## 1
Amino acid sequence: MSGQAETTLPTTPPYPSAAKTAVIMISLYISIFLVALDRTIMGPAIPAITNQFNSMSDIGWYGSAYMLTSSGFILLYGRVYTFFPTKPVFLSGILLFEIGSAICGAAQTSMVLIIGRAVAGLGSSGIFTGAILIMLNTVPLHRRPMLQGLFGACFGVASVAGPLLGGAFTGSKLTWRWCFYINLPLGGITILVVMLLLKLEEEKPKLNNWKDTVRHLDPLGTVLFLPAITCLLLALEWGAAEYSWNSPRLIALLVVFAVLFMGFGVWQYLTRNTTATVPARILLQRSVAFGGASQFCVGATMLTISIYIPLWFQAIKGTTAMQSGINTIPLVLSVVVGSILSGGLVQRIGYYTPFMILGSSLMATGTGLITTWNMNTSSFGVGCTMQHPNLAVQVILQRQDVPIGTAILSLCQTLGGAVFAAVGQNLYIDKFSDSLQRIKGLDSHGILDAGATELTKSVPPALRLQVLEAYNNSLTKGTFFAALIVACFAVPAALGMEWRSVKEKQQPSATQDEEKIESIAQQRLNDVALTRTTTQPSMTQESEPSLLAPPPAVWRRMYRSSGQFSEWMTAKVNPDLRGNLPRARR
């Protein structure tokens, strides 16, 4: 009927002009680049920082403070993005990141520097999810693959540019402080562009009062999740490097992590239909679950390789930190080319799953070659795989669920990198120390404390070849082999993804679904009533059997959930809408 066409509602927002979109996207790329850069730029500056503050015992906290807050608050930011406008929340993340960078740059003590790293990590936890949501509202779905592929390119460039810039700043008059000050002008560009150019039209759930708002942010979930992740990362950070794995401190951390994480899982199950930070209907969705597994594997493989390949060059090949950064350029180029090329092909073909399968296979193959030493293939696979799970979330989830879905994937990637960076370090230390103890006439303690560039200087000339061989084996057969194992798990994760196309229509919001359902149902009811009035005027309402009357069981369920009644009604009125309905709440 003509009435059905009139009830169709628009499901896409008005998009800005091409020029404005280009400027906005460039500002987003800057923000992503800064977040990725902040994870790697500090490495070359640590010796200078510890010399100035006399803080050798705090080295682990410079990285851990950032990772703890970055990982711990990702899910909370996803929840905040669900209920609050994207623009101010994203700006708050950028502002916190800038404040943390300023504190680090101006720090006069090691403790202040650690606090600044924690503040910067807190801000960074909301930047990537916010960037995805801004792109969601400024770029049509079928045009996002190429632009989103550039996010992966930003990560790749930053992984190599970070150590190079860190070494350049530390060795110049600018000093190590500009490793953090560089974020201020570049981040300021993003803040200015977003404030002036970005205008978003969003539908957010309406909350009654501040108590209702706090309840929907799931504070108990955050209280359980944040210390759980803290205990896990601290145990991995301290394991083997500072304490043995059977030490009471590490055992206590792992036990507390297990208890708190199980408590978090139970609480999420109990609140799954109301205020859960991670609703089961999102987490257990096929593409979100397998996409999260893929992101964990990609994050673990990429960060492990990007950290330890420069160390291999410095220790085994005897290069400087700057030269090792230059030698890893093939690594970053393959990430950039893989990200852009796969994004362009997805935009052309529509399907992203084939490129995830191809990319994960190349990543596993290349990582395997690294264990025998060949570094030219692995990162192309990383580039092909990295951003496609985020595309899948935008295709298969309703608009209001995208923030949580994106936050889950971002958390998986961050945790993958954090966990396997620590695992790689522990494997390297364990294997290297065992190999050194087998070399007769060698003091292994002094060698373990020496950096990669000082390795050969602290070893007698007659034993250097044996030590270098032990170092090489500890990386290739230990750390890189662990990266190979986790890279192999990315292949079945990619195979589990749904075959969906970015050329399909994005899932509408629940509000739009309900309005469409009610409008179509009301139109059909009016048509039925009009037909009965004209064809059988003598029948009474009591004696006439209703064509739309549900069975008694449905009447009972109708009071429990209006969503179930709407789904039943629509299936009766227009069966074509059955497959496009959101799952009714139980």
## 2
Amino acid sequence: MLVLALARASQPLAAYEAFLLAGADCPRYRPSAFSVNALLAALVRADRVDLADRAFRAALRRRVSPDLFTFNIVISGFCKTGQLRKAGDVAKNISAWGVAPSVATYNTLIDGYCKRGQVGKMYHVDALLKEMIQAGISPDVVTFNVLINGYWLCREGKVEDSIKLVEEMEELGLACILSTMNSVLNGFCKKGMMVEAEGWVDGIAQRGMKPNVITYNTLVDGYRRLGKMKEAAAAKDAMAGKGISPNVKTYNCLITGFTTSRDWRSVSGLLDEMKEKGVKADVVTYNVLIGALCCKGEVRKAVKLLDEMVEVGLEPKHVAYNTIINGFCEKGDAQGAHEIRLRMEKRKKRANVVTYNVFLKYFCKMGKMDEANVVLNEMLEKGLVPNRITYEIINSGMIEKGYVPDISGYAADVSKNLTSS
């Protein structure tokens, strides 16, 4: 009872310790499957799948008879952490305990493959679907939604397949949910099929569902990807006309598009609109604006935005600092770039590979090879791993100009990567 009480009280680690102690004090102690299920579920929720696995195996050794919930909890934990092989092994052993897998079992496994980048191995999903049908288990609304939302359909550009699944759902009398419809819409937009995308939005309404902010943000982003900013802005206005308030993601998408097309008047108008509607800028907003200002050569204004971020309680990320450092380097202002690096490090953000690449490129461009060599050695001494861009800079900026970097202790690794790049 103690194990059950602690698990229900959201104290999974204490429940786990109680479970172990009970078994150590009384080898014949056999908890109920109900208590074990509560413990396993609490551990999985706390992201302690490792302990859930141990508790599961310990329960089996104590001859606890697992039920379907026991197996489903363990399978969901393994899928949650991407341990799909282990999840599959547990599923294969269900029948050995006289338990039949349910549609929830298969849904969990299918969802695991879809979410964990297993899209290139569709045979896993196909095999699970065939196994379901052979076992007499009919796919339910969750199965279809998982498949449609999965990477191997819309996110892989297979919009036609996802539409067929929606139609199949409806033929079976299963209701499609809005998030699934939005996933199909995302597929259209990523393929640049905006006429079809607009038609799909109409179809959402015809099915009795109300498009939401995600629906319209997907449309806005679709037009933005194609550089059709007039249509993107119109989608935002259509959203407002439907009584749906644009959010910061809507504005970030539009601001990104208009900065790319250098339509500064529209950017300014959107910023004013955000203030008027009480939509607060986030880190992404500032990153986009800082990038735009640096591209215009207005680096000092970008620094002011960096200050503003801190003032409003937002923590600048590496991308903001590195963008400004690059902006100063592009203007030939190494001192300004160095000052931003110091500010970054004062906020406990160490220079990363991108930071060093910016300085390395600058010194190579200026012909200051000794300074470039110092930067390279400092990066290596700090244990940072050079990336492809680093090697391209070394090759084109130093070696091709007749300067061999003095990197004793790192030469073997660097030269090996240079020859393979």
